[in-house]
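Let us practice reading a record.
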Amino acid sequence: MSGDDYYKIKRLPPYVFEEVNKLKARMRARGEDIIDFGMGNPDLPVPEHIVEKLVETARKPRTNRYSSSRGIPGLRRAMAGYYDRRFGVKLDPDTEVISTLGSKEGFANLAQALCAPGDVIIAPNPSYPIHAFGFIMAGGVIRHIEAHSPEQYLAGISRAVRHSVPPPIAMILCYPANPTAQVVGLDFYKDAVALAKKHNLLILSDMAYSEIYFDEDDPPPSVLQVDGAKDIAVEVNTLSKTYSMAGFRVGFALGNARVIAALARVKSYLDYGAYTPIQVAAAAALNGPQDCVAEMRATYKARRDALVDSFAKAGWPLEEPKASMFAWTAIPEKFRHLGSVEFSKQLLEKAGVAVAPGAGFGEYGDGHVRIALVENEQRIRQAARAVRRFLNGEEREPGTAAQKATGTPSLAAE
C-alpha cells in the first residue's frame, strides 16, 4: 500500500506547486541563480526586542516544560489587547481568544472542530489552499465560488446556498486576500455578516495580512468590527507576516465563544501549544513598540513599487496591490495558452525567476501567477531584466548563484 491509498489522501488533488518546486530544486543543485518569488516566506529579520525576549525566557528551566494548548494567559491578553487597539474590538481573553500554531493550523483545526462528514463549506476560488483542503481532510465538501473580486464572491453566496444539499454551514473570507491581494472595506463585512445571518452560516475569516497595507490612511478592517459579528464569526490571524515570525508558528483565533471553545477542545487532544518562550516573545511583539511593523510595511511598499515599475518596463504590466505581500497577475497574453503551471516552469527554466502558478489556488486561478515580495529591490529589478529577455525570446544570461553574488566562478552548488 502506498501513501496515496489512504482515504483522506485520496481526497486531496496532486500538489500543483510540486512540479515547479522540483524543477527549482534541480536548478539550485546545479548552482543556478534563482530569483524566488514563489513562496510567501518573509525574509526580513525578526525585530531584536522579540528575539531578546525569546532568548531570555528560554534560559529559564521551567519554560522548557509543556505549555498550554490554549496559549498562556499573557499571550491571550496581548492578542485581545491588539484587537482592541487596532480594531476597537473588545474580546474576553479567556473565552473569545485562543493561540494557534500559526493561522494555517488554526484553520485546519477549526475544520476538525466544526465539520462533520458531508458538511458543505462555501469557499472563494482562487484562495489559499488550506481554506478548502482543511475542510476536505475533515470530511467536508467545498462549494467553490469564483472570486476574481470580493463583490463577485459575495454575489455568488446566496445562489450557492440555494443549490447546496445539505445547506452550507460556513463561509470563508480572506482579506487582504491571498493570493489575489484584494482588500475590502467595512461595508463589505456588514453585507457579509447580514448574508451569513440570513442563511444561518458561520463566518471564518483569515486575516493573516492585516498589517501589510500600503495606504496608511485606510488600514484593512476586521469582520469583528461589525455589530453582532461575534454571534457568528471567528477570525484567524498570525504573527508570521506582521513581525516576520513565520518559523515561530504562532497565531490566534478570536471571536464567537462557542466556536473558540470547540477549537480549544480539539487542540487539547492534539497539541500542548507553542514552546513557552515563543509565546512570551509573541506577547512581547504585540505589547511592545510597533515601529518595526511600520518599517516592515515600508519595505514591502518599496518592493511593490519596484516590482510594478520594473515589470511594466519589461513588458509585463501588473496591477498594483493595495495590501499583502503579493502581486496577482494574468499571464502575458502570448503565453496564456500554456496555463499557469507550464508558464511558471518556462519562466523558471529560461529566466531563472520562480513564481507560484495560479492553478495551485484553485481552478479559477489558472491563467494567473502570484509573485511574492520576498526579494530585495535590486533582485526584483534583476528579475525584471530577465523577464524582459524571456518575453522577447532571448537566451538567459549564463551564471551560477555564486557567480551572480560574487562575480567569481562557482565551485559548488548552493
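A brief commentary: Residues 216 and 294 are 10 Å apart (CA to CA).
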